[in-house]
Design goal:
The protein has two domains: about 400 residues, Purple Acid Phosphatase, chain A, domain 2, CATH 3.60.21.10; about 280 residues, 5'-nucleotidase,  domain 2, CATH 3.90.780. It contains 18 helices and 35 strands. Strands 7, 8, 10, 11, 12, 13, 14 and 15 form an eight-stranded mixed beta sheet that branches. β16 and β17 form a beta hairpin.
């Protein structure tokens, strides 16, 4: 026994050096009976989630560094955690291969060859991931692409028989998914689970260090909504089963095969509403399945544990947002885009037959790439070096035109009525939602589909803080100028009274104007421009009476020329922020959402521009749903915008705008403009 103890640290060093190797590669086995009853070990589960191909701290839309994101920074946290916990498994939750221009470039624009490894997998291999789950966004590019880049050999209609498929480059770690099945074979699309033989060091009761094999079983789940979200790729080819049913089927098998630990990798959040096999966020119920030791969750782009979280899913019965447990099971959710590394520290004791988790010593953490002083951890320089060619090719791609515009799309005068940078967004959102409703929600087929958006860049930070897309070619990176935030598109079912309340809230953008006041009055309040939601449809019309107090300003609200009744129903395309309560708009609390799309508003806009190709002011930038109610004022009504932009207001037909003062004196490059509200129509 003494001889074994001396030799095994050397063997262990060699094993750890290749811990990211393919699961089919042979690894050294520890000698039998090397772990005695009462031996202890500490093992850390490390989680990344919803990376969405954000490898670098870089925004391809803005063509600029973004220190708040990137696996190259998470990699630094991974290295630190591995130093702290030599016994560790690095696991990914899914939504890995889609989400950036780099991902689109490799999947759609210049699809990689079978012998090439997808950039995100190249880095995950380099970082020696031990395993991963599969998210809903993995299916966005279709089954043939997913099959190739994961080297999976899918047995589905439309692909060659698995035996005749070539071996392709891909992840050098197991990927698991238990609740998605091939329609043709009635078997799981991916392997449902994998038992990883992990070499660890343990401490015997007499204080000696020994090597051991820990059998860690990982099992994966994804939202059943993939069948709706990617219907065009998946219909008739795959089907789903409930996550709870899948777990109850496979976890006993995993235990029978000797798994010491069962780790659930669930690409879903927490929902304690009555269980359904098609519920989107089933992780709450997975925590109740017998023999689950830990859960790695995701999909919600949130962070858990987080004692300060106000998220409803983290304030459910049985959920401890301080300790990081769900019904007693240690659980972590690692935000998104590489912002957080999840760490679950498990303390194990061997009972003579198997390893047992000491729940009283479990520690769950969400470690951010942002430090306490608001700075960010350094990047792992080897990451950027490994994908330098892919990165540069993507930059070249996003500069490539996807369409043309015959006018300058800008937000310099969006506050006073120019829809030039907003209507194209509303059109893209409305078309996307209308198509989905037609295909998947026939019960709402008779409801009008409208869309709202806001002038996200409206001068708060000065003259450069406006949308400004010049006439001529429109490239992919211009989409970030037209749609600033990385939101996802949502559709809500609302009543006429909801729409009026929505608009009344948005109209807080304006100060109340006194018509009799002879001194200058500022039209624009401190209410944020990103909350000034507006419609731009010729079917909808309304007035904003700025002489009235807040919540009494919307007049003559009509649809197709007829007054909208309070009970009349509509579908409105918006974003997840607004639909889920962002901005505190009455009635918008998440309960009216009928479609939470997996696609970003920005991506929807890009695809729409690709489709129409030619953007014109007449068709895409001139329809104003709203006007100010006309009023004659004794003194000037003023607002600020960037200097030397009057010609753009006139080009948009806003001839009641004039320059009041060329420089507002703020040093931000702004002028003071005057609006004649008596001619606002």
């Amino acid at each position: 026994m003494k001889k074994t103890t001396m030799i095994w640290p050397v063997i262990l060093t060699a094993v750890l050096a290749v811990q990211g190797c393919d699961d089919n590669d042979p690894v050294a086995e520890p000698p039998p009976n090397s772990v005695s009853k009462g031996s202890t070990a500490t093992v850390a589960l490390l989680e990344t989630a919803d990376l969405h191909a954000n490898i670098l701290s870089y925004d391809y839309f803005k063509l600029a560094e973004d220190k708040t994101i990137g696996l190259e920074r998470t990699a630094t946290l991974i290295a630190e955690a591995r130093r702290q916990f030599p016994n560790n498994l690095l696991l990914d939750n899914g939504d890995t291969i889609q989400g950036t221009a780099l991902a689109d470039f490799q999947a759609v624009i210049q699809p990689i060859a079978c012998n090439q490894t997808l950039a995100i997998y190249k880095i995950m291999n380099q970082l020696r991931f031990d395993g991963s789950g599969i998210g809903n966004h993995e299916f966005n590019y279709g089954l043939p692409f997913l099959n190739q880049v994961t080297n999976s050999k899918f047995a589905v209609d439309g692909l060659p028989a698995p035996a005749s498929q070539p071996d392709c480059a891909g992840p050098e770690f197991p990927q698991v998914l238990a609740n998605v099945y091939s329609a043709s074979t009635r078997q799981p699309l991916f392997r449902p689970y994998k038992i990883i033989d992990k070499q660890i060091t343990a401490t015997t009761p007499d204080g000696k260090t020994v090597a051991a094999t820990l059998k860690v079983g990982i099992i994966g789940f994804t939202p059943p909504q993939i069948l709706n979200w990617d219907k065009r790729w998946l219909e008739g080819k795959v089907y789903t089963i409930g996550v709870k049913e899948a777990a109850e089927q496979y976890i006993p098998q995993m235990k029978a095969e000797g798994a010491d630990l069962i780790v659930v990798i669930s690409h879903g959040g927490l929902d304690n509403s009555p269980y359904s096999p098609v519920m989107e966020n089933g992780s709450y119920y997975l925590s109740m399945v017998k023999d689950v030791d830990a859960m790695l969750i995701g999909h919600s782009h949130d962070t858990f544990p987080n004692k300060d979280s106000s998220s409803p899913q983290f304030n459910l019965d049985g959920v401890d947002k301080v300790k990081g447990t769900v019904n007693g099971i240690p659980t972590v959710m690692s935000s998104y885009w590489g912002k957080v590394l999840g760490v679950i520290q498990l303390n194990l004791t061997h009972d003579g037959k198997q390893w047992v988790v000491d729940k009283n010593k479990t520690v769950v953490e969400a470690r951010s790439i942002q430090k306490a002083d608001q700075s960010y951890v350094d990047v792992d320089a080897s990451v950027a070096q490994a994908i330098a060619d892919e990165h540069q090719a993507t930059i070249n791609y996003v500069k490539t035109p996807i369409g043309q515009t015959d006018f300058n799309m800008n937000s310099y005068f969006a506050d006073v009525g120019d829809p030039g940078a907003i209507e194209i967004v509303n059109q893209a959102q409305a078309a996307y939602v209308a198509d989905y409703v037609k295909e998947n929600l026939p019960q709402y087929a008779d409801l009008p589909v409208l869309s709202v958006s806001a002038p996200f860049k409206s001068g708060f930070a000065g003259s450069a803080d406006y949308t400004d897309v010049a006439a001529g070619n429109v490239a992919i990176n211009n989409a970030a100028d037209l749609y600033l935030y990385p939101n996802n598109i949502y559709a809500v079912r609302v009543s006429g009274s909801d729409i009026k309340n929505w608009l009344e809230t948005a109209a807080q953008r304006f100060n109340q104007i006194d018509p009799d006041k002879t001194t200058a009055q500022n039209l624009i309040s401190t209410y944020p421009g990103f909350n000034f939601d507006m419609f731009t449809s010729p079917d909808l019309s309304y007035e904003i009476d700025v002489t009235q107090p807040v919540n009494s300003r919307i007049r003559n609200l009509k649809y197709q020329g007829k007054a909208i009744s309070s009970s009349q129903e509509f579908i409105v395309a918006t974003n997840n922020y607004r639909a889920s309560g962002g901005g505190n708009f009455p009635g918008l609390d998440g309960s009216k959402t009928i479609y939470a799309a997996p696609d970003a508003n920005r991506d929807v806009l890009i695809n729409y521009i690709r489709q129409i190709k030619n953007i014109t002011r007449a068709a895409n930038g001139s329809h104003r749903s709203w006007t100010f109610s006309p009023v004659t004022t004794a003194g000037p009504v003023i607002f600020t915008s960037a200097q030397n932009k009057l010609a753009l207001a006139q080009a948009a037909g806003l001839n009641h705008i004039s320059v009041h003062q060329a420089d507002d004196g703020s040093g931000k490059g702004l002028s003071i403009y005057k609006i004649d509200l008596s001619k606002a129509l």
